Amino acid sequence: MLSAQCTDVRVNQITPLLFAKADNPYDMVKMSVEEIKEIIRPCGLSPMKSKGIHGLSEILIEKHNGEVPQSFTNLEALPAVGHKTASVVMSQAFGVPAFPVDTHIHRLLYRWGFTNGKNVQQTEKDAKRLFPKELWNELHLQIIWYGREYSPARGWDLEKDIITKTIGRKSVLQEKTK
Fold this sequence. Notes:
It contains 11 helices and no strands. It has helices at residues 8-21, 25-30, 33-40, 46-64, 72-76, 83-94, 103-111, 120-130, 136-150, 162-167, 170-176.
């Protein structure tokens, strides 16, 4: 919920502050929406996000005994939880093979010629077809980390991006070297 319109770096700075106050739904609902809003303000959109966090905590208590659901169906039924978020939770929290595709992975797999997908759904299908299932949970993180370091959306230096430089889609390479 915090990641909308916010960098991963900022989310990773703010989450420990929030969880220091409340690391489970029962403690989260004891906080006011205003208290949550003050903590998460640096992530942006804090009025909406704080209401969402408080409301989601209530739903987790009411419908799931305060536990995070362990199925894609139940996760995706929660407000503000789409397929990518459900995939992250399933893979990272529960070890279920999933290949979460965000805009970064979508951009990189396109740059590398692994997908012609016009959207993240197609890119996810292509990634799951190309890579062994047992690698999905770690590989999607490795791609994100590689992208942050060597192949960002802005300030991209092809000379530092050995993967794109070596196997990149011709049209991407031609556009970059213009």
